[in-house]
Design a protein that fits this description.
single chain, 389 residues, alpha/beta, TIM Barrel, ten-stranded mixed β-sheet, 13 helices
């Protein structure tokens, strides 16, 4: 395990998003899950459900942080494990407590769920509480059930599809979007069209979590091979060239925004500071929880909501390092012509034993190829528009 990652000294940006691990266990056994199948197995010692006293103190800490920094809004993601395992009563208490403690700062609450338990009871509750719902879906039945299975080996697609029908038919205003993990064995266009069938307002395509120590599936050392870029470029072409786009794809939207000189709000591209804090079900304050894929304890800060404020977390060298932007990239990345757009990729994917996170992403060839493909496509259209004006 590497030592502390101090990184360059930068001014800290207040946390604007808080991920609460409301329930630390899951009712599925997805074999690509970063929480349960990667290097950090700390979930085993976590309480199953966040105790009421921990939730109350977390809400107070979020409220004091939001008011101290005069934030216009904070975003809270109820996460897990599977947060719906906490049950409707605990869910109601969590949302109510969070909003009361943050007054007068508004709190936008989203639930990230596998949707297996997303029934009428939960949907009516979320409607009353104005809670948005994001659902994990990996495409059509064959693609989704390749990984997202229950402990008994049974696929979950049928149950998720039924839940999405309830959501999109009766409560479409609550639908926040779909999260899809890229699987090279699934056809990219078939996957994208299967997601579109549910009329999502947005889609997030997520790269499987891996590091230089434990590379993701199909990510060979040969930099000439870019299987993830090819997969995502096929989706991009379908999305970009279809008249009247029916959904936003955040990865593509943010890359285009960056190529045109803007900034990104998406973790994993761009050089903006990461302003997210995670609270585990026992009250531990942590960094981005995908760091579980790097090494045991990689996300840890040693802080706890009962003893420490979020401002205390902002002063930690590890937090400043993850907010360092371009200054926090390795020399190879800083010398790259696309570093402002790529941003070095997700910090988790840079890990290598011995050098910590001071490396390019394990997905570096794919990111470079994908951004190049999008750049060429957009540049042709911009040139054509200018020529016609």
């Amino acid at each position: 395990m590497p030592g502390p990652d101090h990184g360059p000294r930068v001014s800290a940006v207040p946390f604007r998003q808080f991920v609460l691990k409301l329930h630390s266990r899951c009712d599925l056994a997805c074999d690509h899950c970063y929480v349960y199948t990667k290097a950090d197995q700390g979930w085993r010692s976590q309480p199953r459900t966040m105790p009421p006293e921990v939730l109350h103190r977390t809400a107070q800490r979020i409220g004091e942080h939001a008011r101290a920094h005069r934030l216009r809004r904070v975003d809270v993601v109820l996460h897990g494990g599977e947060p719906l395992l906490a049950g409707p009563a605990r869910m109601r208490a969590a949302v109510t407590t969070l909003r009361q403690a943050a007054t007068p700062v508004p709190v936008r609450v989203t639930v990230q769920t596998n949707a297996v338990r997303l029934d009428e009871t939960f949907l009516r509750l979320f409607d009353r509480l104005d809670v948005r719902v994001s659902v994990s879906l990996d495409g059509d039945r064959a693609g989704h059930d390749r990984h997202r299975r229950g402990p008994d080996g049974r696929g979950s697609h049928t149950r998720v599809e039924a839940a999405l029908r309830r959501l999109t038919t009766d409560f479409p205003h609550l639908f926040n979007g779909l999260l899809c993990t890229v699987e090279l064995r699934n056809d990219p266009v078939t996957t994208y069209r299967a997601l579109l069938a549910h009329r999502p307002p947005a889609v997030d395509f997520l790269l499987p979590h891996g590091t230089w120590a434990a590379p993701p599936p199909g990510r060979a050392p040969d930099p000439r091979r870019t299987p993830y870029a090819r997969w995502l470029a096929a989706v991009f072409d379908e999305w970009y060239h279809t008249p009247g786009q029916r959904t936003g794809v955040r990865l593509f939207d943010e890359i285009i925004q960056l190529l045109l000189g803007g900034t990104s709000r998406l973790t994993g591209v761009g050089t903006g500071p990461l302003a997210v804090a995670v609270v585990q079900s026992d009250g531990a304050i942590e960094l981005d929880d995908t760091l579980a894929a790097a090494y045991p304890g990689a996300a840890g800060t040693g802080l706890h909501v009962t003893r420490h404020s979020f401002d205390t977390a902002l002063r930690l060298p590890v937090v400043r390092a993850q907010q360092a932007g371009a200054a926090g990239l390795c020399a190879t990345c800083r010398a790259c012509d696309l570093h402002r757009v790529c941003g070095g990729g997700l910090r988790t994917h840079r890990y290598r034993a011995g050098t910590g996170f001071d490396n390019p992403s394990v997905y570096c060839p794919d990111l470079y190829a994908l951004i190049g493909h999008i750049h060429r496509t957009v540049a042709r259209d911009v040139t054509a528009v200018r020529a016609a004006s």
